[in-house]
TrEMBL record:
This is Putative NAD-dependent formate dehydrogenase alpha subunit. It comes from the Bacteria. GO terms for biological process: formate metabolic process; respiratory electron transport chain. It is found in: Membrane. The keyword Nuclease does not apply. Residues 8-64 form the 4Fe-4S Mo/W bis-MGD-type domain. Keywords: 2Fe-2S, 4Fe-4S, Iron, Iron-sulfur, Membrane, Metal-binding, NAD, Oxidoreductase, Repeat, Translocase. It comes from Sphingomonas changbaiensis NBRC 104936.
Length: 694
């Protein structure tokens, strides 16, 4: 403040990084943002923040931002700056040419979990109404799509059950496949506060994450499972609960389908699912697992929090349903202090899924094959809709390699860096005739693009984000977009170049349309958000001020559904060539593929990705702290420095994925979740060997 002077104005807005959804007062001097002050009235953060939201906003003014549209005839040619009119007319003409040549289904679009609800809604509308197909997907495909599938199947809605405040009433907290300290720091502080007040902690994670032993916190149980065995661990916990008579049968009879419960209980109760029988698979000490199960079932209010260590597996959807089974079996659902709580990675993962970004669903998770639902949208939009579900991201890339998918509009996602099996993604992009990248920077995907449309940051736009607790919060324009347009305006101009005739003048009108067409958002408006600060969906006539805790009087689907989730080992196996298992995660100061945080001072805290390796495995390979190592799988290889630590077990290595120099996804494979195609990022068989460096 001393250097930049005192602020002249301030605007309250929502963080553009993670799914916690902290709110800040953005303090300005003229057109310059001088600091972000955590907002004391923020319902998700109550005046707290982390190093990303508070300090890592300088990328908005970074010199590498692209501010003018660019085109090129082929990816071998240099970019040529053009006017917005020329870029959008060219994009529309290419999309029309390609559809005329290769058919209606040869093009598609990808929405971004970093963009607002209103922007996301418009991209899926562009695809459905303008491209006349359902080839729309979201970057949530590669993170929380199994959450959508698993929670909808068991509870009836694709969202976490609780608000963050709920943790204050938890007596037992189980954290599985998540590292809140690094991934969701402000919620982690809240959780630690509750643990210091005496709540008991169970951590199920292959790695000894910070929470296991933090100042004044000691997990009652750490279950260091073998990567890829979540379902086996949860099945063994369920075995203990059922066979020791710890299930809450009164709750189950009242709230769930009793016959399905009996079938599930018989399955998990089988002796082959005991902790002892499954120990050779999970590598978890049976007594610890039994203790954890008893604590979860009998320790009072028990809440489960999970992250991508649950979803990014070939059994991601099964794991989500196994978690839901445990919660229902013990009555830990439908009241404060309990529940099933996915910790969302990006700021608007929940929102991008809510807005109809999946190829089979319209907003509010309603299937596209429903004729009366389609008719409602058709009447509103004035165009017929395709009843057939479209292609997922991975299917679009496969179809491109096969020569039948030719054009893609990508808003705010670097699929080359963030999707698995980089070589295959590159092959798919290279096979397309028109790749339109709408983003802040010339990212790795833009190497394969023919049209580049400059994007705007969260500081330059109005709209809403929905955080991990279903909280819809205002995003308010703090500074004028450097490129001249908010992202929704660019999508609107592209739609109009295709002849759609849209005429929104403010994102509030888009939210009014969302509310008109989506029952769970029926009571949401910008005016209400200004009045209340935020609301948690469902927000409608029944719950005009929103719904902090779901499923209180009954599940959204009626009776809660138990689903038998048999453990099926991943096809990704270790062997003599690739004897170690790689798993991946985040670090506090960086965010995803680093496109934003690497362009801020936060990089001083984490200038490169490191490979964690156990001392035993390091010694066997002649590797010491700081040495370069080659990390290879059957998909590809990369080079990175090692750090030797017993935080990981022997046989397991771990790295983060924030730096393009490392490109961790070069080594991840094509395996994915059976239900949703979410990539199996968390289990890759690898070899590690000494290297002289990149
Ligand atoms: Fe932003 Fe998440 Fe940090 Fe909050 S915890 S400041 S939402 S990155």
């Amino acid at each position: 403040v001393k250097e930049l002077g005192m602020p002249e104005s301030a605007t309250v807005t929502t963080c553009g990084y993670c799914g916690v959804g902290c709110t800040f007062r953005a303090e300005m001097k003229g057109e310059q943002l001088i600091r972000m002050v955590p907002w004391k009235d923020g319902k998700a953060n109550r005046g707290h923040s982390c190093v990303k939201g508070r300090f890592a906003w300088g990328y908005a003014n970074h010199k590498e931002r692209i501010l003018n549209p660019m085109v090129r005839a082929s990816i071998d040619e240099p970019w040529r700056e053009v006017s917005w009119e020329e870029a959008l007319a060219h994009a529309a003409s290419e999309l029309k040419r390609i559809q005329a040549t290769y058919g209606r289904l040869s093009i598609g679009g990808i929405t971004s979990s970093r963009c607002t609800n209103e922007e996301t809604f418009l991209v899926q509308k562009l695809v459905r109404a303008g491209f006349s197909n359902n080839n729309v997907d979201t970057c949530a495909r590669v993170c929380h799509s199994p959450t959508g599938y698993g929670l909808k199947t068991t509870f009836g809605t694709s969202a976490g059950t609780q608000d963050f405040d709920s943790v204050d009433q938890a007596d037992v907290v189980m954290v599985i496949g998540a590292n809140p300290t690094d991934g969701h720091p402000v919620f982690a502080s809240r959780l630690k506060q509750r643990l210091r007040q005496g709540a008991k902690l169970i951590v199920a994670d292959p790695r000894r994450i910070d929470l296991v032993r933090a100042p004044h916190i000691e997990a009652a149980y750490h279950l260091p499972l073998r990567p890829g065995t979540n379902v086996a661990v949860l099945t063994a916990m369920a075995h203990v609960i059922v066979t020791e008579g710890l299930a809450d049968e009164a709750f189950i009879r009242d709230r769930c389908d009793w016959n399905e419960y009996r079938e599930w209980a018989e399955f998990v109760g089988d002796p082959r699912h005991s902790p002892e029988a499954l120990a050779p698979v999970t590598l978890v000490e049976p007594d610890a697992l039994r203790g954890a199960a008893r604590l979860y079932a009998t320790g009072g209010n028990a809440a489960i929090y999970y992250g991508l260590g649950v979803t990014e597996h070939s059994q991601g959807s099964s794991t989500v349903m196994a978690i839901a089974n445990l919660a229902m079996a013990t009555g830990n659902i439908g009241k404060p202090g309990v529940g099933v709580n996915p910790l969302r990675g990006q700021n608007n993962v929940q929102g991008s899924c809510d807005m109809g970004s999946f190829p089979h669903e319209l907003s509010g998770y309603r299937h596209i094959s429903d004729a009366s639902l389609r008719r409602m949208f058709e009447d509103d939009w004035g165009v017929p809709l395709d009843p057939e579900p479209g292609l997922r991201i991975n299917n679009m890339l496969d179809a491109a390699v096969d020569g039948v998918f030719k054009a893609l509009y990508i808003q705010g996602e670097d699929i080359l860096q963030s999707d698995p099996n980089t070589k295959h993604v590159a092959a798919g992009l290279a096979a397309m005739e028109c790749v339109i990248v709408h983003d802040l920077f010339l990212n790795e995907t833009a190497n394969y693009a023919h049209i580049f449309l400059p994007g705007s940051t969260f500081l330059e736009k109005n709209g809403t984000f929905t955080n991990a607790e279903r909280r819809i919060q205002p995003v308010r324009r703090v500074m004028t977009p450097l490129n001249g347009f908010e992202d929704w305006e660019v999508t609107q101009e592209l739609a109009n170049a295709l002849g759609l005739g849209w005429s929104y003048t403010h994102p509030s009108q888009i939210m009014d349309e969302i509310a008109r067409l989506t029952p769970t958002f029926a009571g949401v408006s910008f005016a209400k958000l200004d009045e209340l600060g935020s609301v948690q969906w469902p927000c409608n006539d029944a719950m005009p001020e929103g719904t902090p805790v779901m499923h209180i009087n009954g599940f959204v689907r009626g009776k809660g559904r138990f689903v038998v989730t048999d453990y099926i080992p991943t096809d990704e196996k270790t062997g003599p060539r690739f004897p170690l298992l790689l798993t991946t995660g985040r670090i506090l100061s960086q965010y995803n593929v680093g496109a934003q945080t690497r362009r801020t001072a936060n990089t001083v805290w984490h200038p490169e990705d490191l490979l964690e390796i156990h001392p035993h495995d390091a010694e066997e390979r002649g590797l010491r702290e700081g040495d370069w190592a080659r990390l290879a799988s059957r998909a590809g290889e990369t080079t990175l420095r090692v750090t030797v630590t017993d935080r990981v077990a022997p046989g397991v290595v771990y790295t983060t994925f924030h730096h393009p120099a490392t490109q961790a996804n070069v080594v991840t494979t094509e395996y994915s979740d059976w239900a949703t195609s979410c990539p199996e990022y968390k289990v890759t068989a690898v070899q590690v060997s000494p290297s002289n460096g990149p």
